[in-house]
């Protein structure tokens, strides 16, 4: 099994590199990174969230299941959001609050998929002295197929 890529756990590290409110430009694509999704990363994610479905963890059961092999849980986009963005991405800012999101799931991500993210801010506005950003995110596999897409709002730290 391939070694899962490690993730930075000091969320304040590189905070000074992240775009400020004034630098977020609606419509501008965010810089993203491809990510090789491994079975180890899927297993670590499942362990972290308490997911025990054998379709995600047991190769023999998954091969006999409806997808013909191991797949990642749909909620893996949470891990992918951070693994596909560099340390200076504005979505990584400590103190960011999720103000709502809606996701559509098309196909399962699988171990060995190279995931690509296309993301951007759609709008930004101030309401009740809070800084809001509306954003969209689309995850693709190496074949250009959409795994999932979502739109959400975050409240940015002051």
Descriptive account of the structure:
18% of the residues lie in helices and 30% in strands. β3 (114-127) and β4 (130-140) form a beta hairpin. It has a five-stranded antiparallel beta sheet, with helices on one face. The relative contact order is 0.21. The chain has a single domain, classed as Thiol Ester Dehydrase, Chain A (Roll), CATH 3.10.129. The chain is α+β, with helices and mostly antiparallel strands.
Output the strand order for the largest sheet: 1-3-4-5-2
Radius of gyration from the alpha-carbon trace, in angstroms: 17 Å
Q: Give the overall form.
A: elongated
Q: Which blocks of ≥5 consecutive residues have pLDDT under 50?
A: none
Please trace the helix and strand order, writing H or E for each element: EHHHHEEEE
Number of strands: 5
Describe the biggest sheet?
A: 5 strands, antiparallel
Name the beta content range.
25-35%
Helices, by number, come to 4
Termini, distance in Å? Answer: 43 Å
Overall mean pLDDT: 92
Supply the CATH class. Answer: Alpha Beta
Q: What number of structural domains do the residues give? A: 1
CATH level-3 fold name: Thiol Ester Dehydrase, Chain A
- Write the CATH architecture name: Roll
CATH superfamily descriptor: Hotdog Thioesterase
Structural class: alpha+beta
Helix content: 10-25%
């Amino acid at each position: 099994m391939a070694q899962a890529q490690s993730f930075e756990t000091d969320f304040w590290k590189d905070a000074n590199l992240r775009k400020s409110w004034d630098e977020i430009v609606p419509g501008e694509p965010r810089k993203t990174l491809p990510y090789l999704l491994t079975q180890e990363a899927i297993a670590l994610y499942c362990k972290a969230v308490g997911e025990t479905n054998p379709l995600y963890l047991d190769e023999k059961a998954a091969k006999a299941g409806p997808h013909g092999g191991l797949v990642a849980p749909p909620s893996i986009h949470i891990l992918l959001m951070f693994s596909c963005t560099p340390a200076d991405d504005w979505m990584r800012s400590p103190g960011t609050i999720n103000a709502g999101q809606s996701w559509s799931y098309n196909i399962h991500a699988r171990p060995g998929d190279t995931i690509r993210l296309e993301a951007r801010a759609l709008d930004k506005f101030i309401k009740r002295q809070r800084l809001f950003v509306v954003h969209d995110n689309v995850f693709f596999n190496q074949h250009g197929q959409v795994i999932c897409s979502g739109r959400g709002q975050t409240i940015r730290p002051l």
